[in-house]
Design goal:
By secondary structure, this protein is mainly α. It has twelve helices and five strands. The strands form two sheets. Strands 4-3-5 form a three-stranded antiparallel β-sheet. Helix 2 packs antiparallel against helix 6 and helix 3 runs antiparallel to helix 6. The protein is elongated, with a radius of gyration of 25 Å. Keywords: Coiled coil.
Length: 369
């Protein structure tokens, strides 16, 4: 079974790779607006910059390709670890030893499951890479259009307009996906957000598929669904994850004691168990032999402190992204300002960590490059 910390440890290496990629893409975009000449902001300048879009596309592809081997190796390693760590093998062995099951669980393999998950994940990350290239071009065009309109309209000078547009890009990140909220508002997701969401989903789906293999081989009729603090508690039916977590279900049919697994949890649905951003898993349960685990403890004070730590970490990443922009623009004055801000936020974080011994500094969460 995977707990919250294990999920974070598995997600972070892949997230860090794409943070490196986004940093280089931000710098590359900004570098294309660093040189000012008498034509800057004019229609002729705009046309010239449009012609440079093809070169940016090639450079974005090159940057992403540079990390492709590292990404594939890390994805494979993470999925394998998720698959094996998700299986309660010691519990199965205990039940086998007391003849609760007739099949030795140590003879069951999940090699094919892991191979299939890796193939699916490779395709997923290819799509993310494609969207990242498209997002890079869009970010470039947003800066180009904003600068042209503001400079030609006399609202701002060229340098001010470019800096405003680039800072806006750094704060938003490079868009990699969009989705529509229930109120109809369209929301853009950055590379960082998309990679985190899709990596979590891939990890958990692999974990659940690995458990499916054991459920099938052990001929289990029941499954137990894990629980965690902060589960979704909105929506109806299986959309409300809090309503079905931490319980035992029948795989086929239902009775007075056990509800049906798929019908209740929505296993396989995008908004159900093992759907997008879901951290719940399930595994074989044998009534009379299996033991329902204790509910995970929830420490509200530690949660609040952790959220405050995340706030400082986001601030550090924000200023590091701004630094990437000004390095691309070769703006020495603002490079110095950003470096000072990064140091200030790092010092504030360290002071906060020192004041709360239950916290530990995680440098990987402050990383952008």
């Amino acid at each position: 079974m995977l707990d919250d910390k294990q999920f974070e440890d598995l997600i972070r290496p892949i997230s860090n790779i794409y943070s490196d990629i986004e940093y280089e893409l931000l710098m590359e975009i900004a570098s294309r607006f660093k040189n000012y000449d008498s034509l800057s902001g004019s229609l002729e300048w705009y046309t010239k910059k449009l012609d440079e879009l093809g070169g940016l596309n090639q450079e974005a592809v090159r940057i992403i390709a540079k990390y492709s081997n590292k990404t594939e190796k890390e994805v494979k390693r993470v999925l394998e670890k998720a698959g094996y760590d998700a299986i309660p093998l010691q519990e199965y062995k205990r039940i086998y030893d007391v003849e609760g099951i007739s099949i030795d669980p140590s003879t069951i393999t999940i090699t094919r499951v892991l191979e299939n998950s890796f193939v699916e994940s490779k395709e997923l990350f290819k799509l993310i890479n494609t969207k990242a290239v498209e997002g890079t071009k869009k970010a470039y065009m947003d800066i180009l259009n904003q600068a042209y309109l503001e400079v030609s309209g006399g609202y701002y000078d060229y340098n001010t307009s470019i800096q405003k547009a680039c800072k806006k890009m750094a704060n938003k990140g490079i868009s990699c996906a969009t989705y529509q909220r229930s109120n109809g508002k369209t929301v853009q997701m950055s590379i960082e957000s998309v990679v985190r969401r899709d990596t979590l989903t891939s990890i958990n789906q692999t974990a659940n598929k690995a458990n499916d293999k054991f459920i099938e081989e052990l001929k289990a009729k029941h499954v137990y669904v894990t629980e965690h603090a902060g589960a979704r508690n909105k929506g109806v039916g299986w959309q409300n994850h809090e309503s079905w977590q931490g319980k035992v279900y029948l795989i086929e049919g239902s009775d007075d004691k056990y509800k049906n697994f798929v019908a209740t949890t929505g296993y396989g649905k995008v908004d159900g168990l093992a759907g997008v951003n879901c951290r719940h898993s399930h595994y074989a349960f044998f009534p009379g032999f299996s033991v329902i685990p204790e509910s995970p403890s929830y420490n509200p004070k530690l949660y609040d402190l952790t959220q405050k730590q995340r706030y400082f970490e986001r601030g550090i990443r924000k200023w590091k992204k701004q630094l990437a922009i000004y390095e691309g623009l070769e703006d020495d004055v603002n490079i110095a300002v950003c470096k000072k801000k990064v140091k200030e936020w790092q010092n504030n974080l360290q002071k906060f960590i020192d004041e709360h011994e239950e916290l530990k500094r995680d440098y990987s969460r402050e990383r952008v490059y």
